[in-house]
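Problem statement: downstream parser choked on a complex file, so we are re-checking the raw output for the iron/sulfur cluster run. The parser issue turned out to be on our end (a line-ending mismatch), but while we're here, posting the original submission so the record is complete.
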Amino acid sequence: MAIEPDYLRLAREGRLREIGEHLWAQLENCRLCPRSCGVNRLKGQRGFCSASADLELAGYMVHTGEEPCISGQGGSGTIFFSHCPLGCVFCQNYRFSQEGEGRIYSIDDLARIMLELQAMGVHNINLVTPEHYLPHIVLALDRAVSMGLRLPLVYNTSSYVRRETLALLEGVVDVYLPDTKFFHRRWSMKLARSKDYPEVARSALLEMYRQRPSVVFSPDGVMLKGVLIRHLVLPNDASGSFDWFRWIRTNLGKDVYISLMSQYYPFYKAGEVPEVSRRITRKEYRDVQEWMLSLGLEKGWWQEDYGLDELAGDRIRHEFRH
Ligand code: SF4
């Protein structure tokens, strides 16, 4: 029997709309993300992320370069949102995440985009850093369901998301795709002006696993439910790779799925920070790979040495025992 997204049941029960409206009310005193700006976005005020109540999208596409279990054969229906609550100095998407490129869409437009992507044969709807637009997304999802949406929802995130906000999404999200960016505060401060990223991200991961403790794949290897942890290795261990994997092994076990990425490139303002102004070395990458394997973390994918492509997942190969 086909596995359907849990949000279909929530929509039938009217819960999806309730969750969307609950999130929408938070725009009046915005604490959607850990920045907790408290601005009234409904009146046009903007906080750290620079998003007002208007939904702004940078674009959407059939993404064939994500991990094999996300892109599959048909691609991932990826939606890119303008603005970002985290704001890393090395962001490859800085033109829309930090410089605000994009244009305004309505909630109905977003619902139609989801359906358009579904009609193009993608395996899922992949929301890239959606925290600041969660109210719009859940309301759009509710409308899209009534128009025939049936695809798994992938929540593709920096992990800078409040545990309380994630708890509201229980049953809404099928697949969590969290980044693990900085294990240590001194690096999150330096590279993203966030003193609480490490604690927030660890708490978020625990909540994601509480919601999706086991992984379900389709017969052709696409993840239908579960969590896939991304980790981008930064130069000089600025991401705290060794501590991240020790923490993951201790707190989440050895059966977690991991996507290890080598594609770091000093985009945007990274050139102004000497420690992260270069690519990683092969030795830096291999040391992390060996550390993961020594901990028994053998499920998932990793990129080739020196992932030279710009998009997450490009040149990822099946490397671990899957
Ligand atoms: S979503 Fe934006 S405005 Fe709201 S708390 Fe986060 S950074 Fe501030």
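For whoever reads this later: The first strand starts at residue 55 and ends at 63.
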